[in-house]
Amino acid sequence: MGETRHTKVLIIGSGPAGYTAAVYAARAMLNPILVQGMQPGGQLTITTEVENWPGDTHVQGPDLMVRMEAHAKAMGAEVITDIITALDLSKRPFVAQSDSGTVFTADAVILATGAQAKWLGLPSEEKFKGFGVSACATCDGFFYRGREIVVIGGGNTAVEEALFLTNFASKVTLIHRRDTLRAEKIMQDRLFKHPKIQMLWNHDVTEVVGTEAPLGVTGVRARNVQTGAEQIVPCEGFFVAIGHAPASELVKDQLPLHNGGYVKVEPGSTRTAIPGVFAAGDLTDHVYRQAVTSAGMGCMAALDAEKFLAE
After folding, report:
1. Which of 2, 47, 55, 311 could form a disulfide with 102 if both were Cys (CB 3.0 to 4.6 A apart)?
2. Looking at 140, 282, 285, 304, which residue is catalytic?
3. pTM for the whole thing?
4. Does the annotation count 139 as an active-site position?
5. What are 193-208's pLDDT values in tens digits?
């Protein structure tokens, strides 16, 4: 059995919301413990250029998260590399089990577990994951230098990934099931002007095709959503960029969720249905989903927790 540790405030997750909550909770002398989770730094660590973080004209996502972590530690927060695997909110203090065996008990919990990439749910997609199928251009784009790549999606994520992948690929085909994109207009302008990017409108992907030995992608089967006609689009890399889903598994049976799994909070606050449990960032925000709004909510969560503990 691992040790049991008590803290006034346990912060679960390490994106802009978690680290900002840690900065504010530490400054309030609450000695918070932050458990980083599966992906320390969250989604920003798989983003390259961030151009909308106030004060930085452009900054690399991973660099920004390294700075935030250092800031939280400098203020006195304890940052632990571990994963919370189970959380019991039915009794106080709240109890969190970690992957390493350590048990954390806490008077207040700030949930900042963020969101994770969505997948198409195809058996062939699952089969080739890591062998030509990815949901992270910045993690895996490097492996496709001089090769053809297909991206699927129509929002900011898809357009960002497609543009980023032009740094490596000889050609990028963006497949979208509609005839217009949802991405910001400035992003669309860049995309349409890029000589390496080709659009395939009104199509979805029904299968990833490839070789068995060695396992590798050779193309995707694309279906015209209007006519049903199918074609194989050749590629060696297939990037799924159809958005993100909130990482609410820890609390899905304990807290009210809405809009497809986002944790519900009181309007204008980070308070959940359980007193002493707060939620911030992409876990609860289905509208804005920005680094800066996540950080703002992290601040709110720490202040809400401080007020709760004082009472």
Report:
1. 2
2. 140
3. 0.81
4. yes
5. 999 999 999 999 999 9
